[in-house]
Specification:
This protein is an alpha/beta fold. It is built from 2 helices and 4 strands. A 4-stranded mixed β-sheet has the order 2-1-3-4. A hairpin with a 4-residue loop joins strand 3 and strand 4. The chain starts with a strand and ends with a strand.
Amino acid sequence: MVRYLIDVNLPYCFSLWNNEKYIHQRNIDPKWKDIKIWDEVCKTSLNYKLVNIFIDRIEGIN
């Protein structure tokens, strides 16, 4: 099950998120704007505890 969404601005090929727990935005649709991604994340977060990974921090999504 996918647990982490990796931002499109982060490297696609990176060993840390090269497994089934992570999905890179590029695998969904690299052209989606942030608002479209966040709409989908918020819908999903109703059922799952999600985190957002940035270059400089990790944030929980409630």
